[in-house]
Design a protein that fits this description.
alpha/beta, 8-stranded mixed sheet, 7 helices
Length: 205
């Protein structure tokens, strides 16, 4: 059963995609510790500083579901997510089909700055239909979509996520300038995690 899905007072939420299998990592990377908590929870906490967040998970991710619950992040339980990231996006958007817009974020990207997230949300609030952060002319995550794209997002499937939709709508993407390399930094391998752990340790000192 899905928990209650929150929205901001004016109707927005973040959707955290956390249903992947982490085949390149070789283990459940989203539960790997980073800065004293599971990787996925670090990513969720960044989003929560800005807006309500829901996570899309597979039915078997019991520990991760519990961890999210402890943070106040309700979960969309989606068996269809076995079919790829597109299905996860569709499940998350469908769970809050009444929203004015969604920020789609990845659970293995723990270094996105809250100010960047706030910038994407502000662009949606200002009327952008799609908004994304850009650093040194490169687009990163999270990507914001207005309600006009709800049907298109709910029809996604496969591993490409919203990539094709973004390609088709390239002219309609509102860029949000930032100086945030975290919009590109995902954790795909144990080496990536080791490097991320070192970054956290260095920042603490």
């Amino acid at each position: 059963m899905n928990a209650a899905m929150p929205l901001t007072a004016d109707g927005y939420c973040a959707i955290l995609l956390a249903a992947g299998h982490a085949r390149r990592f070789g283990a459940d990377k989203l539960l790997q510790p980073l800065d004293g908590q599971p990787l996925a929870c670090v990513s969720a906490a960044r989003l929560l500083q800005v807006l309500p967040t829901v996570a899309v998970v597979r039915p078997t991710q019991h520990e991760l579901i519990d961890r999210f619950a402890a943070l106040g992040v309700p979960c969309v339980i989606s068996s269809a997510s076995e079919n790829g990231m597109g299905a996860s996006v569709a499940a998350g958007v469908a769970a809050r089909a009444d929203a004015k817009g969604w920020l789609i974020a990845l659970a293995d990207m723990p270094f996105i700055q809250p100010t960047t997230i706030a910038g994407v949300l502000a662009a949606l609030r200002a009327g952008a239909t799609i908004a994304a952060p850009y650093c040194q002319s490169r687009r990163g995550h999270p990507v914001g979509f207005a309600a006009a794209f709800g049907d298109a997002l709910c029809s996604l499937h496969g591993d490409a996520g919203a990539r094709e939709l973004l390609r088709q709508q390239a002219a309609n993407i509102t860029p949000v300038a930032c100086d945030d390399p975290g919009i590109f930094a995902d954790i795909d391998t144990p080496d990536n995690l080791a490097a991320a752990t070192l970054i956290v340790a260095q920042s603490a000192t």
